[in-house]
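Lab notebook, bench 4. The sequencing result for the construct came back, and we need a structural model before the next group meeting so we can plan mutations. Quick request posted to the team channel:

Model the 3D structure of this chain.
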Amino acid sequence: MRRSHEIIPLIFEYRELQKLLGTYIDAIPPLLDKNDRLHTTFIQNGAVTGRMATKNPGLQNIPMRTELGRAIRKAFISDDGFVLAGLDYSQVELRIAAFLSGDEKLIDIFKRGEDVHRAVAAAVFKVAPDKVDHEMRRRAKVINFGILYGMGVLALKQNLCTSRDEAQRFYNDYFETFSTLAKYLDEVKAETARRGYTETFFGRRRYFDGIKSKIPFIRASAERMAINAPIQGTEADVIKLAMVRVQEYIAKEKLEKDVYPLLQVHDELLYEIKKGKEDKVIKDIEKIMRSIIDPKLTHGVVLEAKGSIGKDWGELKS
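Done. Here's the predicted structure in token form:
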């Protein structure tokens, strides 16, 4: 309905402002301690996928894609003598989808270190990578992330702002190009229907009661979640293992007073690091995060991690 009446975009804008004001701007200051520190509560099994959640306040949901969301992140600053360091996995769910499915074309893109959205656009639109324009890359990005959440043709049409016929063609071309990935996603649905659960790379299970429902929309919803579960679940396992191994590294190097873990936001870890030690520590943590799964077990796909630093959370620079 977004483009059917001029008031609708204004309602969305109002809702964003209301959310930022009510959830963060008004709610956070009263929660500060005497040192102006904020303490969230982590819930280990906060999401069915295995991801952690936070509450009182929920710091994982501060929006990053909008200018207003980033402005709120700028309010989170490091202590004197320290810098904030964010370390996040790059396109981790797509990398996991590549090695779980064994799709050689997708695997090769990551092994060659290419921009995955540009490379996918080149493959789907059958043009050279240097001929991929901004719109082609945008469309590839939409479907790259969409297929991880079981996006169908109708949702693709809405996200691409195109006709159903064009969305169907793009959908078909994508899965013809990455046919092993398409086969894997179909197998996940079939296996989940047969067994009633999915498994992550590490063997952690998630059960789906609705996968055999006779009500079509309940079954379809369970199938969409089942497609995503092994991928997002593996990501959740990886980031938790990374947190544990980084903490072991901090203890081994006797850095407990120089490096403080602050926050985990799904595929990102946030630390406060003493000035002068940030370069070595960030490189060491990047190395730890890349080594959580041996590339020999992932067809050579490396879970790439990159660090960035800054005085505040909204302005972290590589």
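Residues 101-230 form a domain with the DNA polymerase; domain 1 fold (CATH 1.10.150.20).
Will bring this to the meeting.
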